[in-house]
Amino acid sequence: MSTTTLPPTMKTLLQPSRQKTELISTTAPLPVPTHPDDVLVRVHATAPCAGELLWARDFPDTIPADKEPVPCQDMAGTVVSASSSSSSSSSRFAPGDRVYCRIDASRPGAACDYALPRASSLARIPQGLGWVEAAATPLSALTAWQALFVQGTLDVAAVKAGDEVAAVAAREKNGRVRVLVTGAAGGVGSWVVQLAALAGAGAVVAVCGRGKDEGVWALGATEVVDYTQTSIEEWVAADPGAREVDLVVDMVGGRTLAGCWAAVREGGAMVTINTPPQYGKPEGMTKKLSKELFFIVEPLGSNLAEIGELIEAGRVRPTVDSVWEFADFKKAFERLESGHAKGKIVIKVSDEA
Ligand SMILES: NC(=O)c1ccc[n+]([C@@H]2O[C@H](COP(=O)([O-])OP(=O)(O)OC[C@H]3O[C@@H](n4cnc5c(N)ncnc54)[C@H](OP(=O)(O)O)[C@@H]3O)[C@@H](O)[C@H]2O)c1
């Protein structure tokens, strides 16, 4: 472990009670690496995720009782120290490297000056991406990537460089898949739209609220449903033969999820990240799908590196809703919990961001 002069304490946000969503700003000792794959990072910018302040209360099996309650699991920063042992995966990173990641929800987040992500979750920030945009990327992009290419039915070879023959074949295959995505203008949704379009999906149907259509067209949507004007059920019922989809990615749940059941074709696939598909299945519906699943994102640095190649090539881009000073964290969370962000809400942590 290389050393550097570090302050004894740092500023941090903390959630004093897991039963309440209230946050405080305070100071605390710096986190101390205890595992060979721990990497100490000076944080420049971070981003919260919708609903995250209720995870510890609602999913106690996933969030350990002794977790230091620092919120915001998305992070962009500079490596301070990493293990120099060649057997450790953190040795891939050196002090001064610009890195970003999604910190696993079971570990303290990044709303603080120094965070301690695991090397397996880290990737180098692509050239040309600033701290704010970098912090806006990991969770949303990883979730979209895994929803489409790992859990869903699009072939990832379509977006990979290096094997043009495989890419063309994959794009042809993906061209037969109509994708519908809800929450399409939000953090995850804006990545699903871009990645599905880039992978050559036969259609990208973006479901979003009023005033969001321009943004989702620009990201690559081929059809837009304004759910405040037309429900998904009404939209598909107008022309089921042409409008039914092969793959749904839903991040809204509730009534919206019921609409997704109407839109997916018999034998199609449904991937959800808010509530399991069965929770929204209308009573009496007999439709059978080839795949229906809820999943939790895996914070894989390897996937983030693949996404980083696409960013560096200028083929995809994070969408930032708004940027907040650290002292304005309450306003940032209020904006997030309004539920209608256009992309990610980012909090600056250092003066460099
Ligand atoms: N399972 C996982 O691993 C995982 C990973 C990441 C996120 N999530 C969850 O996924 C959800 C979305 O996350 P996010 O970061 O994308 O949130 P977000 O940025 O707040 O976006 C949510 C989007 O939902 C849309 N929306 C709100 N009410 C709606 C309604 N009634 N019908 C249709 N759309 C509606 C909003 O768009 P409009 O303004 O256009 O209405 C907003 O853009 C959250 O619940 C989050 O906790 C889960």
From TrEMBL:
Gene Ontology annotations for the cellular component aspect, listed alphabetically: mitochondrion
InterPro entries (UniProt xref): ADH-like_N, ER, GroES-like_sf, NAD(P)-bd_dom_sf, YIM1/Zinc_Alcohol_DH_Fams
Molecular function as annotated in GO: oxidoreductase activity
Record CDD domains: MDR_like_2
A Pfam cross-reference name: ADH_zinc_N_2
Domain (Enoyl reductase (ER)): residue spans on this chain: 22-347
Protein name: NAD(P)-binding protein
Organism: Parathielavia hyrcaniae
